[in-house]
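Fold it.
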Amino acid sequence: MTRRGGDQPEPLDRVLDQIARRWRRVDILLIDRVREMWPKVVDPVLAAHCRPEFIKDRVLLVSVPSGAFAQRVVEDSPAIIEALAVLGDQAPMAVRVRVGGTPTTE
C-alpha cells in the first residue's frame, strides 16, 4: 500500500482500482498467444533467449539479455510483425526491446 502524506495508508479500494486500470490496458490472453507462437516466429536462438513480455497500444515489448540480441530483434521486427498479423485487430504493429532481466537457456 502507498501512503498519502506519509501518515495514512491508501484505501484498499483505490489501490485495487489502480491495479485494475493497469491490467485492462494489457491483454493477458493475447500475450499468451504470442508466447506460444514465438518459437515459430523467430530464429531458435532468439526464441531461447528473448521473451515477449506484453503488448500495450499494439506495441510488443520483448526482453532481451544483451544489446546484440536487441539488435537482432529490431532487425527481425518486420518479419515478427508480419507473422503475428494472424492475431487480427489485436496484432502488434511495432516491436520494442528492453535489455536485461531475461534468463537464458543453454
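The first helix runs from residue 12 to 24.
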